[in-house]
Structures are given as C-alpha cells and as structure tokens.
Amino acid sequence: MVFFERTMSNNFKMVAKTLFGFEEILSKELRNLGAVNVKEGVRNVSFEGDTGFMYKANLSLRTAIKILKPINSFYVRDEKDLYNKIYDMDWSEYLSPETTFAIDATVNSDHFTHSLYVSQKTKDAIADKFRATDGRRPNVDIKFPDIRINIHIQMNNCNVSLDTSGPSLHHRGYRTATNIAPINEVLAAGLLLLSGWDGQCHFLDPMCGSGTFLTEAAMIACNIPANINRKEFAFEKWQDFDAELYEKIIDSCLNKAREFHFKIIGYDKAPSAVQKAQDNVENANLTEYVKIERKNFFESEKFTKNHLHMVFNPPYGERLNIEMEEFYGKIGDTLKQNYPGTDAWFITSNLEALKFVGLRPSRKIKVFNSHLESRLVKYVMYEGSKKAKYKNQVKS
C-alpha cells in the first residue's frame, strides 16, 4: 500500500507524534489550524494538509513532538527485502549527491530486532542507489543533516517518512536555563490544555522552577505560535523549501496573536530558580505578561479575589529529597486555607503522596513525565469562609 497520496488540492498525508494521553488535544489543535482527515492513533495523530500547512503545523502545534511526511509504505520480509525496496525508490526527489542525510529507525517486529541495523541497511541502499545513478553518494551527517529520514517497521509493515521538524518540537528555543528535572515544554503545554487553560482568568504556578508552565501559559493566552522562537526546522533545508511561503505563514500566525488582560505569576523560593525563570520568559519576549517572585507557596495567599487557575509541578521523590507526607500535606493545607475560588492542578508520579494532600481530587488524568507514569490531578477550591477576607481587596 502506498502511504503517500496527493489530492487535487496538493494536500498530502502527515503524522504528528505526541505523548501518551495527548492525542485528543493534538487532534483538536490540528482541526483548529485547518487540517483535514484528522485521525487519532496511539501517541500520534495523522492528518492532511499542503506544504504551507506543514510549515504552519511545525510553527504552531503545542503538543506535537515531531511531524513526519510519509513518502512510501511497503511489506518487508527481511533485511534484504528492505534493502531492495529502499533501493528501488526514486530518492532524487529528496536528495542529491551534495545532500547530507541521517536515518532514524524504530522497529517493533519479530523479523527486525535491531533498529541500528535497519538504519544501516537503509543508508546502504540509498548510498548504493546514488552511486549507480550519479557515480557518487550523499554523505551521512548524524547531527546536522539536510534530510532526516524516518523508518518505522511494525511487524512486516515498513513506513518511510521525511522528518519535517528536526530536533523534537519541545525544543522551543526560549529555554536556555534549567533547574533540576525541568518539565518538557510539550508536556507542559499539554497539561495546561488538559487543565482547560484558555487565558480567560489569572494564572499561578506556585513552584515555577525554570518557568516552563508560565511561558507556555502566556503563549496559549496570547495565541502566540509555540515554536516562534525556534531557530530552524528540518524542512528549511529541503530542496523544495519555499522561503517566501514560509514568511507568509509566519506573518499570518503572528497576526492572530491576541492581547491578554489578566496576570500570569510564578513563585519559587530559590533565588537561582527565579533568575532562570525570568531569563527564559525574557528569551520568549513575554516579560510584559509574566511576573516571577521569590516566594514560598506555603506562606502565600491568593493575590486576587477573582477566579484563579493554578498549574504546577511539585517535587517528586525521584527528583528531590523531601519529606513527602509533610510536603504534600502542606500543599493541601495551603490550598484549603489561602486559595478559595481556585482550580488547582498539579502533576505527580508519586501516587502515594496524593493521600497526604487531604483533599479529594475532582479529576485524575493518566499522563507520563518522561518514563514516569504520573497523574494530573485537579482540586477545586470553592469560595467559603475566606470569602470575606477578600471582599475589600482591590480588584486585580
């Protein structure tokens, strides 16, 4: 079966890879951008669009790790069959002898057990094809190739794709300073979207670390393209790259940015974390929307009498040496006593620790933080006896 199908409108199939549990929000992002034939898979969403949409998807998607452009699909019996079918492809459409390339391979098959060997056979087939047709071959460049080719073998089905993105799309380009175990930018954006964050109220990250939640929250609130600060995408090195079209796509996306009329605030008790978060927010050109303070969450109070949306990433036992029962107990006490009218969300991989919060979560969503199975939990703090305390507070 041929995977690469063009339509009369010059649309072609693409596959956006994502994290576990983010398939639904990624498909929503794609539909909102204008993708057609959107279909959810496992850790991926397939869709169709034209070249301009490929540029826009890389620039704008918040929950995609990588966007692949399938160019062929076939049945393979063994390594020799793989070599022959890769050799038979017309690679001149994508490469020349002057082009550098790299192969990424993933395999899940009884017949193919070593991804590095699959990469080697693919590389050999492409190199041998160019030797036969041009008398010379393109060179391999693992770190900075002109073209990155993705081979995915599932049992006996082989999909060949071009990597349109390059390095993972969580490399936004704004984060130069990090703390211990910083949260991945794609994970942060996905958690924010799962929490329902839409920029229509005040926002607080009370344990902000290097400021990833704050930066992603501001970009969502202002509808700023997720990867506007990224230096380069893989497609910019392609033979058919249309620089003029790409500039038009950038302008079009930036023209859809909107103003934000609430506060986005981050706390951290470590001066080094505050400085790093401020540096990253500045790198993202978002300092007018985000304020970061040195403050201990457990000694803080809600800064507004209006609704507050809170998302944070408290320490795990795997990351920092803390007294888990006491720490998570303080989270619950602080929320109960000082944060009425707040939707509080946080992620943890320590499911035992949730017992010490002393509150019943209204939602639990299974996610993964790197290799750690985790839960995104929501606590709704209703207005109660503390309401009078904020009655005369100046409206923020």
Tell me what the structure shows:
40% of the residues are buried. The protein starts with 11 loop residues before the first strand and ends in a 15-residue tail after the last strand. α5 crosses α6. The protein has helices spanning 23-33, 51-60, 79-88, 115-134, 185-194, 212-222, 243-254, 271-283, 324-338, and strands at residues 12-17, 36-40, 44-49, 66-75, 101-108, 147-154, 157-163, 202-205, 264-268, 290-294, 308-312, 342-348, 363-369, 372-381. It has a 7-stranded mixed beta sheet with strand order 2-3-1-4-7-6-5, with helices on one face. It has a 7-stranded mixed beta sheet with strand order 10-9-8-11-12-14-13, with helices on one face. The protein has 396 residues and is of the alpha/beta class. Residues 1-8 and 385-396 have low confidence and may be disordered.
Give the gist of this structure.
The chain is an alpha/beta fold and 396 residues long.
Write the layout of secondary structure elements.
Layout: E1 12-17, H1 23-33, E2 36-40, E3 44-49, H2 51-60, E4 66-75, H3 79-88, E5 101-108, H4 115-134, E6 147-154, E7 157-163, H5 185-194, E8 202-205, H6 212-222, H7 243-254, E9 264-268, H8 271-283, E10 290-294, E11 308-312, H9 324-338, E12 342-348, E13 363-369, E14 372-381
Parallel strand pairs: 5-6, 8-9, 8-11, 9-10, 11-12
Antiparallel strand pairs: 1-3, 1-4, 2-3, 4-7, 6-7, 12-14, 13-14
